Amino acid sequence: MSPRAKRSLEPSKTDPSFIRNFCIIAHIDHGKSTLADRMLQLTGVVDDRSMRAQYLDRMDIERERGITIKSQAVRMPWEVDGQTYALNMIDTPGHVDFTYEVSRSLAACEGAVLLVDAAQGIEAQTLANLYLAMENDLTIIPVLNKIDLPAAQPEKYAEELANLIGGNPEDCLRVSGKTGIGVDALLDKIVATVPNPVGDPNAPARAMIFDSVYDSYRGVVTYVRMIDGSFSPRERIQMMSTKAIHELLEIGVSSPEPEPTKGLGVGEVGYIITGVKDVRQSKVGDTITTQAKPATVALKGYSEPKPMVFSGIYPIDGSDYPNLREALDKLKLSDAALVYEPETSVALGFGFRCGFLGLLHLEIVTERLEREFGLDLIATAPSVVYEVTMEDLKEFTVTNPSEFPTGKVKKVLEPMVRATILSPKDYVGTIMELCQTRRGVMIDMQYLGEDRVQLRYTLPLAEIVFDFFDQLKSRTQGYGSLDYEEAGLQQGDLVKVDILLQGDQVDAFSAIVHREKAYAYGVMMTGKLRELIPRQQFDVPIQAAIGGKVISRETVKAKRKDVLAKCYGGDITRKRKLLEKQKEGKKRMKMVGRVEVPQEAFIAALSSDSEKKGEKKGK
Amino acid sequence: MAGPLPIGEAVPADGSLPASVQTNSANKTFHAYVHVPFCRVRCGYCDFNTYTSAELPGYGPGDFVGNLRAELAFSQRVLEEAGVANRELSTVFFGGGTPTQLEPTQLTGALASLREAFGIKAEAEITTEANPDNVDEPYLEALAAAGFTRISFGMQSAIPEVLKTLERTHKPENVPFAVGAAKQAGLGTSVDLIYGAPGETMTQWQQTVDSALELETDHISAYALIVEPGTKLARQIRSGELTEPDDDLTADKYEYLDAALSDAGFEWYELSNFSRSAQTRSAHNMAYWNTQDWWGYGPGAHSHVGGVRWWNQKHPTGYAAALAEGVTPAAGRELLSDTTRLEERLLLELRLRSGLAIDVVKAINPKATGVVATLIADGLVEASAALAGSLVLTLKGRLLADAVVRRLI
Fold first, then answer.
1. I need a labelling partner for B363 at 20 to 30 A (CA). Which of A61, A260, A443, A585 fits?
2. What is the spatial distance between Cα A241 and Cα A254, in angstroms, rounded to a whole number?
3. Alpha-carbon span A287 to A105, nearest angstrom
4. Minimal Cα–Cα distance from B400 to chain A, Å?
C-alpha cells in the first residue's frame, strides 16, 4: 500500500505532469459517495474524527436521497514511488436530467472511474454517462464496488464491463467503499493510467466552468478547470460568453474545505469567487479568461440549458404567493436551469409556470421549495412543450395545456426522446408492453451479458414525464433502469381534453393527450372529481370535452341535508362556533362558477397517488 | 348543555356583569333554565352534561336543590348590582339530564324558590322534561298543582330496536300512559323524537311519527341524530359496530315528518319544532331563538343577559364548591360584539317560521340582495316572504339551513 503523502503539492505551482483529474461515474446507490469518503480518509484530507458519511454531499436532499445534485471538486495528495501527486476528484451528478452538467464535469477530467455495484451490474444512466466519458476521450478505469456484499457477483459483472468497454475482466478492480478494501490500489491505478493534463502555461488564460454554486454567505462559488495559462488573486477576469468583467476576490482549491491559494495553473482544478450573486452570471460551460490578456477562442461545448418539462406550482395557502416568488428568486441564484413566470389558475389561484430539465429536477426544486422555504405546494401534472400550427398557419408554442389554441389545428409537434432501458431479460415482455402503450417505437434490443438486455425506444417525452419510471420500476420489481436523451420533434395526433364543472372549464385539469387516450383520460378525471367534489345545493355536472364535444360525463348529485337540527339548549355560543368553523371552511373553498370546491379536492385530483388509484378503478 | 364548553374569557369572581347589560336588557323578557344533571343511565348518543349516581358519589338531588338556592341568591345579587331591574320570569324550563330523577317535592320546591326569588308571570309557561318511565299520576298532579303548565317526554322512537341502539331504557308502551296522565293532570304535552339513528329504516321512522301523532300531544320536537364526538355512539361508528346515518335517508325522514305532521294539523315554527297552534309553541325555546335574557341554573348551564353569554362549570362538585365559597360558578363568558349579535340573529331567526328580516342580512353583508335572489332561484327561501322583506325557509331550505346561513354571511 502506498503511504499517505507526507506533504501536498502547492496549488498554482504544481507541474501538470503530477496532476491527475478524474471523476467517478456511477448509478445512484452504487456507492459513489461512500467510495469518495474512503478516498478522503485514506489520503488524509479529512481526519477520521471529522469524517461524516457522504461528506461531499452538501444539500440535505442529496444526503437523504443518496444522490448528488451539484458536483464538486476535491484535491487530494497521494504518493506513488516517492513522488507526490495531486489528485482532483470531480464529482458528477448521476441523473439523466443533468446530462449537460455531467458532460461539463467530464470535460474537466482526463480519466473516469466507472463504478458499478458488484451485486447489481451496470444501469442505464451509468451507460449514458460512460458513453459521454468515452466521447470525451477519458481513460476509463472499471471498478466493481461493494464486493463485501454476500450477493456480489464480481466475475459476472466484470465480464459485462469488459464486453462494454473492451479489455479483460481481470483489469476490473474490486473494491469496497464501505470497508475500504482496494481503495488504495484504485488511487495507485489512477496515478498510473490517467493521463496528466496538458496545456500552454504561457498562452492567454482559459478556464472552463464546470459548476457554479450559490452560497448565501459568499455569493456564487464557481468551480473551474484551468486549460491554458493561469489565474492569480485580485486579477480581473472576463466571461467569454457575456464579456462581463469581475475581480477575483478569492481563488483556491477544495481539500475538501475551501482553501485560498496563490492562484491556479495549467491543469489545476479549483474555485473562484468574484462576488456575483446569481449563478446566471457564471454559467456552466462558459470559458473564463483575463481582462489583461484575453483569449480569442472560447473552449467548445457551451450551451444554454433548455427546459423540457413544465409544471404549474401553486402555494396551497394563497397568501404564501409572495413567499413562493421570493423562494423561486432565491433558488434561481443557485439553479441556472430553473425558469418560471407568473400564472393564474381558476382552480389553484396564483402561482408560477416553471420549466425544468426533467422530472427529477422538478421534484428536487419542489422539495427544496417546501423544505428550505417552508412552503406547502401543489404542482400540476407535468407537461411538455408543443409546437402547434393552425390551419391559417399561425404558430403557437404551448407549455401549458390550458393555453392550447382553439380553432382548426393543422398539426401539433411534440418532443421525442430516445430512451435506453436496461433490465434482466425476464422483464422484456412487460417493458415492451409498457413502451407500446406509451406510443413507443423500438429502435433495437441487445443482450449485455447472459441475462441482461438493453432496449432502445423512441418515445414521446410527454409519455414518460408522467409515471413512466414508476411503472417501469414496478413492472421490473425495481431492476429496470431508464435513461433518455432528446430526439427532436415529431408530429402527433394530439388533442386537448378540457374538464368542465357545471360548464366552466377547470384549467388545471386540461391535458394534451393522444386522441386515442382522450376518452380514457376524460373518464378517469371526471370519475375522480366526482369522488372528490362535495355535494352542493344543486346537481353539478362534470364533463370532459374535446373542443365542444363532450366525451364523458359524471354528476355530483345535489346535497339534500345540511343542517344541525339539534337544539343545544341555551348554548348559542356553541352553535355560532360551529357556524364560524363552517365559514372558515368556506374560505378555503375555490369557486368554479357557482361550485364550491375545497382546495384539497383539486390537490387530490392532481396528485399521482390518486392517479394510480383512479387508473386501477378504471380498469 | 352539550359537549365541551366553549372557550371564552374569564368571569370575575363575583360574577359581576359589565354596565352595558343594563341598557341591553331593557326590552328583553327574563327566563330561567334549570339544568338537572342526573340520569339513571347514560344513553350512547348523549353528550349532555349528566351523571348517573355511580358517577357522582356523595352528590345527590338534595345537594343539587341546595345549590340551586345558592345560585338563585347569587343571581339576584349579580343582576341587582348590574342595575338590571327585577323582572318576573316569563318562562321556566327544567331540563337535563332527567329532572324527574328528583322527588316531586324537590322539583316543586325548586320552582317555589324561583318564584320566591323573581316572581313568575301569571301566564308563564313552566315546563319540565320527563322520562316516561319515572312519572306516575300523583307525580304529575303534584307538578300541576305547583304551577307547572307543560311537560315534554323523551319518547325518541316507538321502535324497541331503535331505542336499543340509542340505549334508551324506557318502555315504549309507557309513553301513551304517561302522556294520558299528564293531560289528565291538565298539563300541556310534547314529545321529543330522534330520527336517523344507525339502522333505523324509513318504515320504522314512519311508525314512530304515526305513534307520536296518535298520542295527540300539543307539540312535537324532532331532532336528527347528531353523532357527537366523544360519545359511545361515535366510537361504535368508528369501530364499524354501527353504520353512520345517511344524510339522504335523513332528509327523506324529515320530509315525511313535515308532511305527516302538517296533515295532522301541526305547523312548523322552528326547523325541528312543530305545534298545533301558536299558543302551544314552546315559549321558552322561542326566548332562546329571539335572544331574550335568561339565567341558566345548574352545572354546565348557559346564560344570556344583555349581550353577555356565560356558562357554568360542568362538574357538579366544582360547581357546588364555587357556590359554597360565594364565588361565581361560571367557567367562562363572552361579550357579544354588535356584529356577532347580528350574526347570531341571522343564525337563529332564520330557523324560525316567523323568518329573518332581510335588513339583518343587509347590515352584515353588502351583497345581501344578490344572495337573496339566488336563494329564491334555488328554491331555498319563500319568494313571497322575501318580497315582503323577510327570509322564510322552504322545506328544501330547512334541510339546507346551515348552507343558507353560510351563503348569507
1. A585
2. 26
3. 13
4. 4
Q: Per DSSP, what are the bridge partners of residue A86?
A: A19, A77
The answer to whether the beta carbons of residues A284 and A567 sit under 8 Å apart is: no
Beta-carbon separation of A569 and B304 below 8 A: no
pLDDT for A102 equals 75
Contacts of A71 (CB under 8 A, 6+ apart): A90, A91, A92, A93, A101, A105, A210, A211, A223
The three cell numbers locating residue B409? 354571511
Contact A570 B247 (CB under 8 A): no
Q: A587 in contact with B at a CB cutoff of 8 Å? A: no
A536 → chain B, closest CA residue: B403
User: Cell 366553549 maps to which residue?
Assistant: B6
Tell me the pLDDT tens digit for each residue of A5-55. Answer: 777 888 888 899 999 999 998 887 788 888 988 998 899 888 776 666 666
Cβ B272–A566 below 8 Å, yes or no? Answer: yes
List chain B residues with CB under 8 Å of A562.
Answer: 399-403
CB-based contact A566 B223, cutoff 8 Å: yes
Q: Report the residue of A563, A579, A586, A587 to disrupt the B interface, i.e. the one with the largest count of B CBs within 10 Å.
A: A563
Q: What is the pLDDT of residue A553?
A: 95
Sign of CA dihedral A581, B304, B97, B130: negative
Residues of chain A contacting residue B221, judged by C-beta atoms under 8 Å apart: 567
Q: Please name the residues in contact with A549: beta carbons below 8 A apart, sequence gap of 6 or more.
A: none
Question: Residue B168, exposed/middle/buried by CB under 10 A (0-12, 13-18, 19+)?
Answer: buried
Q: Is the dihedral of CA B284, B288, B290, B295 positive or negative?
A: positive
- pLDDT of A523: 94
B107's CB contacts (< 8 A; 6+ apart) are B94, B99, B100, B128, B143, B146
Among A544-548, B277-281, B294-298, which is the least confidently predicted range? A544-548
* Distance from C-alpha of A367 to C-alpha of A62, rounded to nearest angstrom: 11
Beta-carbon separation of B402 and A576 below 8 A? no
Query: Does the pLDDT of residue B294 top 80, yes or no?
Result: yes
**How many CB contacts within 8 angstroms connect chain A with chain B?**
115
pTM here is 0.66
Q: What is the rounded distance in angstroms from the CA atom of residue A126 to the CA atom of residue A275?
A: 36
Q: Longest Cα pair distance anywhere in chain B, in angstroms?
A: 60
Residue type, A435: C
If you average pLDDT over residues B64-78, what whole number do you get?
A: 96
